Amino acid sequence: MTDTARGSSRRYGTRPTMKDVAARAGVGLKTVSRVVNGEPGVTPDTEHRVQEAITALGFRRNDSARILRKGRTASIGLVLEDLADPFYGPLSRAVEEVARHHGALLINGSSAEDPAREQELALALCARRVDGLVVIPAGDDHRYLAPEIAAGVATVFVDRPAGRIEADTVLSDSFGGSRDAVAHLLAHGHRRIGFIGDRPRIHTAKERLRGYRTAMAAAGLPVDDAWVSLGTTEPERVRTAARAMLDAPEPVTALFAGNNRVTVTLVRVLRQRTAPVALVGFDDFELADLVSPAVTVVAQDPARMGRTAAGLLFRRLEGADEPPRREEIPTRLIARGSGEIRPAHG
Amino acid sequence: MTDTARGSSRRYGTRPTMKDVAARAGVGLKTVSRVVNGEPGVTPDTEHRVQEAITALGFRRNDSARILRKGRTASIGLVLEDLADPFYGPLSRAVEEVARHHGALLINGSSAEDPAREQELALALCARRVDGLVVIPAGDDHRYLAPEIAAGVATVFVDRPAGRIEADTVLSDSFGGSRDAVAHLLAHGHRRIGFIGDRPRIHTAKERLRGYRTAMAAAGLPVDDAWVSLGTTEPERVRTAARAMLDAPEPVTALFAGNNRVTVTLVRVLRQRTAPVALVGFDDFELADLVSPAVTVVAQDPARMGRTAAGLLFRRLEGADEPPRREEIPTRLIARGSGEIRPAHG
DNA sequence: ACCCCAGGTGACAACGTTGTCCAGCGACTA
DNA sequence: TAGTCGCTGGACAACGTTGTCACCTGGGGT
After folding, report:
1. In what order do the strands lie in the sheet with B154-158?
2. Is the pLDDT of residue A163 over 70?
3. Which candidate among A85, A113, A128, B181 keeps its CA 20 to 30 Å from the CA of B152?
């Protein structure tokens, strides 16, 4: 048994090509191509012979060759932060749905919040000649994509803006949503409100902090430095930050969580405490209404973000030649109880 | 302005090729190829000239052509049920992680539980000449994949077995997990236990039902037909089924939910009722410990399933020539409270 | 009877890359 | 000094498909 023998059955070379089909059907190569692509100009009789050869040989068109020839791949790339994060599930699903509607496949990868990996992935997708790219930025410099965009790769940034480059962008209203969230807590009598958010490098984290500060300022309230903590969403980090705020001499009476991972950790922290602390989280999550107290949130609409992004992308692909757009998706405060707790000594 | 003028900047044809780079660097085509692929046999000086030309022109290798030439695409396909379902997030992430480790990209799509769409997707991926395929079956006949598998596409089925075809498979221990879940309820004194599961067409639903029946039989208990309800996971369907069981003359005192979607709906149903009803769910979910009572579940390990599947796939790609394997991933009962409620008149 | 036309069909080049193979050139050895 | 070796570099074919164009055949019009 030679090694050729072993490998031969796995060789792509053994796959039948149009040439093989043509030979078997006794027709020309181009005729097979016509049948495969449903082009007109083939007698029913010929077509039948070709179809028969196709099934007999188990032929399947090699899209790699087709793509090479046609230039368009009918696929779009999606670079996101983490496929396993519940925020991105509906988003990717929405992108996929739109892509499917346009006959395109979705190729995706997770950057794990690492700018280098984001770039590596995005460029790998460009090398595959995806027609378009939906990117949830991990880094803040996307100039590396400029040549690709110039070469015709429609590119849309979602959830966070592109860095140092002009491009279509779809964002949640992080600032407005956060302002509303904090205003909600203020309206319920809180004066000392803590904010625990994601790393300051991340745009949405900054925007949400800005919303928090703006709401506090609008109420004429000072913000103690100890009330703000930005960092990773690791549960341990969040727990430590929360404890510091809650165990201070003048503890906060309410917390505003900068994202869904933080909110979940805070729910766990707060349930171990006796003193009631109000909580509002940015981004909704499943079962938020079932924990007790039910968690008040600023809901985003990830599916809509995905749909909007993919929509913009395909507009470009269809030739829309307008300056880059920036769509802002509104957020919605959903009051469920945890934000309505009044401060103990209100 | 002619239409050529409008479209020209978006044409792939305008992208520089190795030929262009070679011309600019004053070297041969193959030398550029060597530099791009880091092959030896190029003087530092020449290499430098080529690198310069590459950056100057913004060249990026066209992987379509490379794929066509080499036969291998360095990408694997993933066909799942719904990207937005929290069960599949960690699973796809795990597959992606392994793929990345092998230098492969992930192309994926959702079948939406529709066999026709599953087939369409899987075959589209094969036409793209993915090296391998991870499929979470929606249908129960996968003979359509036989030619592809024969042609060398490594294929692994996950979560549900392949239909009418032999192939590597990775499953959760649905039967054993369900038996344990029901045994747990029995141990807490329940005798009338309801099972609400997914559509009977789905293999895991059948297996979980079998586990339920086996546990009941082992305890010498009859199963009333009214205690079993299989169907979609639509909340409305599940609510109706639950109400019928709970409002019967001889109501069930405990419920076993066949999957995570059903469990969540049941939690909502039960919290509106005064009489305590025990609940165990198949498949864990985030915050299961935070609702009250905390939900006892049979936990699966989707990440491990994904890793195992991708592992099998790459073993095949690396030439493993063994008969199809069937890996069963054990489940784990996590008692949190909801399963430990004793029947009112126990 | 001739010409023309239309529709069906096939030969051939091209897409951009990689593998094969050979040529050129400088250096080292006998 | 001549022969040889090793290394760099390039010409060319091939991967499987599609677009272009020309050929052929048969039928209808004059």
Report:
1. A326-329, A168-172, A154-158, A132-135, A75-80, A105-110, B105-110, B75-80, B132-135, B154-158, B168-172, B326-329
2. yes
3. A128
pTM: 0.91
Residue A339 in tokens? 């934000």
CATH tag, A174-300+333-340: 3.40.50.2300
- State residue A14's pLDDT score: 77
Sorted by where each begins, the domain ranges of chain A are 11-61, 73-172+302-328, 174-300+333-340
* Token pair recorded at residue A179: 């302002």
Neighboring chain A residues of B106 at a CB cutoff of 8 Å: 107-109
Nucleotides of C under 7 A from a protein CB: 7-12, 14-20
Measure the CA–CA gap between B230 and B243, rounded to whole angstroms: 14
Domains B11-61 and B73-172+302-328 share a fold: no
CATH topology for A73-172+302-328 is: Rossmann fold (3.40.50)
Give the model confidence (pLDDT) of B296-314 as tens digits.
999 999 999 999 999 999 9
Element holding A110 (H helix, E strand):
strand A105-110
Contact B11, A152 (CB under 8 A): yes
The string of pLDDT tens digits covering residues A200-223 is 999 999 999 999 999 999 999 999
Closest-CA distance of chain B to residue A268, Å: 7
Nearest Cα neighbor of A139 from A119, A110, A109, A169 is A119
CATH domain A11-61 topology: 434 Repressor (Amino-terminal Domain) (1.10.260)
For tokens 């900068």, the residue is A258
CA distance B80 to chain A (A): 11
Residues 81-110 on A with a CB inside 8 Å of B are 82-86, 88-90, 92-93, 96, 100, 105-110
Residues in A touching B127 (Cβ below 8 Å): 60-63
Instruction: Provide the mean pLDDT of chain B.
Output: 92
Question: What are the DSSP E strand ranges found in B205-329?
Answer: 228-230, 254-257, 278-282, 296-299, 326-329
Does residue B89 contact residue A31 with C-beta atoms inside 8 Å? no
Is any Cβ of chain B less than 8 angstroms from the Cβ of A9? Answer: yes
